[in-house]
Amino acid sequence: MVASTDPQVNGRREEIEKSRREYEKSVVQQYDTDTKRKFYSAVMGDGTDNIHFGKWEGVDVEKEGAYGEASARMTDWMWKRAMSISQKKAGGGKVQYIDLGSGTGAAARLICKDFPDVSCTCLNLCENQNAENMAANTKEGVDERVEVCKGSYMELPSEWDSRFDGCFSQDAFVHAFSKYSAFTEALRVTKDGGWLVFSDLMKGEASGVSEEELESFGQTNMVADWLTPTEVCKTLTEAGWSEVCFEDLTLDIKCSFQLMLKKVNRLLSDPQACKGIDLDLLETYRNNLAKRVGQVDRGVFKWGCISARKPYNTDEGKKRADLATAHNITRKFGMDELVWNHMSSRLQDGGFLITPGGLLFDEITPHDLHKSSTNITADIIHAAVYDARPDVNVVIHLHTPASVAVSCLDEGFVPLAQEAAPFYNKVAVHEWEGLSDDLDEKPRLMEAVKGDSRVLLMRHHGFCTLAKTVAEAWVLAYYFDKSCRTQLEVMKASGGKLRRPPASVMEKASQQIYLPEFAPGVCEWEALKRLAARGQKELCR
Predict the structure, then answer these.
(1) What is 314-540's CATH number, 3.40.47.10, 3.40.225.10, 3.20.20.220, 3.90.1150.10?
(2) pLDDT tens digits, residue range 388-420?
(3) Among 76, 203, 454, 480, which residue has the least CB neighbours within 10 Å?
(4) pLDDT band of 357, cuts 50, 70, 90
(5) Hey, which residues does 121 pair with through a beta bridge?
(6) Biggest alpha carbon distance in the chain?
């Protein structure tokens, strides 16, 4: 976008930026002075550095340290939600995320200590909190995986474009000067298909609550952009996020307020316990907390968790959808092998999408597909094809019984009928070397698929179809498996004698089959997508 040359527009922008920076200084004052840090540690810390609102299910509120336990449970609950969205699961490859408004970094430490393949960038306005964060990271041994940066989530560095697998924020967006700007910045630094998960305090939607009361609550808590959950979700969608979902956890925050009020009363009744804490601040907070417990029931505000996904680019989104369809219909046609076998599609920006593993094929959704596989066999086979064949964009590798049986015959595959025409002189062969778990096999796989083969028959193993699109690759796989079944039936019926069609006829048929209106996938794919969609509707019911 070209910057405006209109002095009035530029002047207005500068005025807004000045207001934002002044507002953020006030936010720092609310959290980062010695007085406020001691106060929050005493009232919400509960012996830990996690001062967030908690998830109370299963927590004994009378137990010492209950507030800290509930705060940690909320972090864990949010992380599980993030991983349910993520295309890169913790434990299945490196995950790099950013915590927007990270405070003292308690959430990042909790997550990174549990998952060694996760790294976090903590972004926070407050210098003292950041120093505390870095010291705690060193003490806990996660300093190499938790980076701490001073800054505002309203203005993220340009070099962070599409850097992170996801964005996490626990009770911090409430202080966003502009929710829309904060959400667009988060979108910018997130990779395509990445996630956003945050908990936050929001304006209530109940009838009978006055605008004055809502505004008063917002002003008391340093809220510049006070929105309802519905408005927040709408703003996220307008900022470019998809699959936006809000889960109402307001009853949990009521429990947090009740326990905080109990702790404040205990502190005020024990001068020794509240030594070093501003008594006027405690008294003010006690009065506010007493109001808040009742305000929860009256609907003055809401608290909950919102999740969203950054849409994939057009190329990747289509390939994810087509690969998910291909997996689904492979299972419908009985061509799958439990959680094994793999399908992949090359991406425009490098690398390829591939079957995740561990899921039955009709469980796989577009978001489940990985950009890297935890199965070395899959990576070796698919990477070898893509490295050797720049014309190939999709590889489907299956172990159907008929294709494995044909791969074990001395003469291998023989095209006998019309359905086999696409494979006439287009089947490459690779000798079995045992499980494909050795990179040393890759050069021989590359050599085998050189040329213009459409199928790689892997002896005593299975086959791969090689194509430009998912539709073409899957339809080729269907007809190759069918042709193998036909060959085996003919051999069974004839005692092994095969009547081959004339070479000239098969050659002509192999060309006709690739006329634009008849090429594999052109006529069949939309119908197959409808078949897969019907299955998804049945699962939903």
Answers:
(1) 3.40.225.10
(2) 999 999 999 999 999 999 999 999 999 999 999
(3) 76
(4) confident
(5) 98, 147
(6) 101
